[in-house]
Every structure is written in structure tokens, then in C-alpha cells.
Amino acid sequence: MEDKELYELIINNSEEGLYQLIYKYKGYVWSITSRVLLGHDQDIEECVSDVFFRFWERRHSLDIKYGSIKGLLACMARNTAINRYNRIKKEQYLNIENECLVADDEIESLIEDVYQKEVIELILRDLKSPHKEIFIKRHIFMEKIGEISDDMHLDERQVRNSLYQSKLKLKKALARRKTK
Q1: pLDDT tens track for 152-162
Q2: Cβ neighbour number for residue 11 with a 10 Å cutoff
């Protein structure tokens, strides 16, 4: 079933649409969340359920004209898993000491802060291939630098350099947005 047909089923409140969505993308969403929540099967399962519930709940406000169901699910899965991961880590550290804080990686916190679609689209619009593909693979699909390097037949140094340049563009875009 094509995404447009699936989207129409979902929009029309069809339980069949939800069933087809889960059937088609459950493995994909599981894969993304499991990269963040390594070895926490129960949390992965809950995240996958949360992603499909959130998608269904927001189905009327979602727009796939410029994207895809797969892309929306990837963003939702990634952010849901990161939130769950941060909650797990916070609980672990709070039990040890009150002073112990979990520090986020700089780009992860930036992307989390700018979940808003228009800022991400802004940076992706400015990036040219292969920088765009590298950025998406690393920060949306949570692939490791070595995996990206192998997949794209690039040196790891080139992948890191591309990610660094993309981060600089993202920071500039965010700075421009904050000054408006």
C-alpha cells in the first residue's frame, strides 16, 4: 500500500489505516528506537506504542505533502526514544546523588530544542548532497559514523567534517531565528 492511500485511510479514522500503518512501519520504528534505548526492550516496546499513538492522535494536523509518513515516524520515534532515554538516565543518576547531572551532547540538545519542523527544514534545505544525507543518517536515523562512512564509501574524517559543517549551519540558523 502506498503512503498516500495509507494516509487517506488514517485521515478517515479507519482502524484499518492504523492497522496498516503499524504493519508497514513497526519494524522501522523499532529499529530507530532500539538504537537509542539499547537493551531496554520494555522501554523500546513502550516507545513504539507511544509513537503510533501520537501519530494517530495528531493525524489531522500532520501534513505529508512535503515529506512522508516514514519521515514523520522517524522523527517521532527518535524524539520519543531520546526523551525516554533521558528520563531513564535521570532516574538512575538521581538515585546516586542529587548533584549528578546528565550532560547532553551539544547537537542532540540543539535538535531536541528545535524539534519544530521549520528550523530543521531550513537547515536541510541549505545543505547539499552528500551533507544532507550524512546529517539525516546521523541525527535522525542515529547511525554511527562508521556505518555512514561504509554506506556512502567515504572516509570517516570526511563524514565528521561534513557533520561539523552542518552543525555550524544549524547554529547560525538558530541564532538568526532567536534574533527575530
Answers
A1: 899 999 999 98
A2: 13
